[in-house]
Amino acid sequence: MYMALHQRTLFLILASCLFLVYCSPRRAARLRRDWLDQSPQTYTLQRAKPNPDSLLVSYIGCGGYLLQYGGDKLLLDPFFSNLSMTQLNTGNLRPDYALMDAFLQRELGTKKDSTGQISTILISHAHYDHLGDVPFLLQSYLRNPVVTLYGSTTAVNLVRSFGAPVPDTARQLQSLEPFFKVHSVTEGEASDLPVSPFFYLPGGRMRFAAIPSNHAGHYCFFGPHKLPFINGHVLQPPAKPAYFGLKYKEGLNYNYVIDLLDPSGKPVYRIFSNAGAACDRGVGYLPENLIREQPVDLMLLCGANYNVANDFPMPLLNAVQPRVVLMGHWENFFKPVPKIQQKAAVVPNTNIPELLENVQQFAREKGFPEKILIEYPQKRQIMLRF
Ligand SMILES: [Zn+2]
């Protein structure tokens, strides 16, 4: 108990020093109104022989994306509700329903996905900025018999802590851990890490597999360190719903390979998702045999804390060789989502312009990626035609 109090006080002091962020509810409401008025925009990367089906990517914020292809729809780490430090540490983890309403209306043409348009949610790791909105999404928006969540046992247990609000999804919370021989990933174990089996979405046009990865430290002080109170695992569903940001322990981490399939079920395009967390050199990489079978067209790259990971992301880019990179988790998620005219604040403690410059320099030298994209959260849909 003393330890818990001590840790929380330490966290508050540290957090206050690092993130002097405050935003009044009135200002948040104004910003929200402003950017909800923006109509979605699309752009196309046209190829000589384009695939008749285009991939629609919507960046939600943090590690969150909605991917739509051939009728299948998949969410990665969906997180809408940027929260202040005060909200996080007073057990006030509440979703921003207005943002969820607007996003789902735009993407699905309806606020409630009762028919299961979105069939799959993939979770990279269980920190609140990746998982914190999921119980509310399942409770209020994705109440359908199809949707299945895949992630660590920690992620599944945290969602289960909400019990009654998500009763009909309890059987659809799938821990990925039984699919791997190793149950913990530490530095240096990367070389022969397995990949999970492929799971197919109901429409048969997308499939995915998980790759155990790791999570960069949160700060550097004579070497990388993690904030201890959000580290570790949740091995049983907590007795009470997890409304405290600090309850969301990291658990195991996953990168994902996501294939887009032609109508006969043959993979034609490949996405590699490193959306959740910067990872150490060699950990969470797509195995070479998979890259040889099907090269990577799009890579979702995590910006946050890239400088704390061991040698990230150049060796990963070099291994994956994607044609297009979309960078996420770059914005300051302790502030409300910015309106389009605003200069967005970047995630604290990370030099995002430097990262972009480094990737651009890498692209000039190596000839890939051909395109490097960075978008505001929830702002526009990106249509990719390869
Ligand atoms: Zn995290």
List keywords for this structure.
single chain, 386 residues, alpha/beta, Metallo-beta-lactamase, Chain A, seven-stranded mixed β-sheet, 10 helices, binds zinc ion
Summarize the structure.
The protein is an alpha/beta fold and 386 residues long. The protein has helices at residues 2-18, 25-36, 85-88, 97-108, 128-131, 134-140, 153-160, 288-293, 314-320, 352-366; strands at 55-61, 64-69, 72-76, 118-122, 148-151, 173-175, 199-200, 206-213, 219-220, 224-225, 253-261, 267-274, 298-302, 324-328, 371-374, 381-384.
Question: What this model shows, in words?
Answer:
By secondary structure, the protein is an alpha/beta fold. Helices cover 24% and strands 20% of the residues. The strands form 3 sheets. A 7-stranded mixed β-sheet has the order 6-5-4-3-2-1-16, with helices on one face. Strands 7-8-11-12-13-14-15 form a 7-stranded mixed β-sheet, with helices on one face. Helix 7 links the parallel strand 5 (148-151) and strand 6. The longest helix is centred in the N-terminal third of the chain and has 17 residues, at 2-18. Zinc ion (ZN) is lined by residues 125, 127, 215, 277.
Please specify the SSE layout and strand pairing:
Blueprint: H1 2-18, H2 25-36, E1 55-61, E2 64-69, E3 72-76, H3 85-88, H4 97-108, E4 118-122, H5 128-131, H6 134-140, E5 148-151, H7 153-160, E6 173-175, E7 199-200, E8 206-213, E9 219-220, E10 224-225, E11 253-261, E12 267-274, H8 288-293, E13 298-302, H9 314-320, E14 324-328, H10 352-366, E15 371-374, E16 381-384
Parallel strand pairs: 3-4, 4-5, 5-6, 12-13, 13-14, 14-15
Antiparallel strand pairs: 1-2, 1-16, 2-3, 7-8, 8-11, 9-10, 11-12
The chain binds zinc ion.
